[in-house]
Specification:
alpha+beta, 28% strand
Length: 97
């Protein structure tokens, strides 16, 4: 019988790392794709300018009764927000605006 020498090749130690973690890369790629898709959807579906809706208006009748003259003050829509005062108004007065 012939003796054949037995050669034993030791296995490398298992350190638990097998290269880059591909699961982490796949998750990062999926998240990046989802964020990009949502951003693109928001950019391409947003209207260019907001649409302004008409504000309903109504006529207002101002009626002041009595005799003689009066001083009337009222607050109307203005940039400054100050009251308007009319002096020496003859009474009775009825004004529709």
């Amino acid at each position: 019988m012939i003796d054949i020498p037995l050669v034993v090749i030791p296995e490398p130690e298992n350190t638990g790392k097998h290269g880059p973690d591909r699961r982490g890369l796949a998750i990062a790629a999926a998240l990046l794709l989802a964020c990009g898709g949502l951003t693109g959807y928001g950019v391409f579906t947003t209207p260019d300018a907001p649409k302004f809706h008409a504000v309903p208006t109504a006529e207002v009748t101002d009626a002041v009764t009595g005799t003689g003259t009066a001083e009337l003050s009222y607050l109307a829509h203005s940039e400054s927000g100050t009251a308007t005062t009319e002096r020496s108004i003859a009474l009775p007065r009825r004004l529709t605006s």
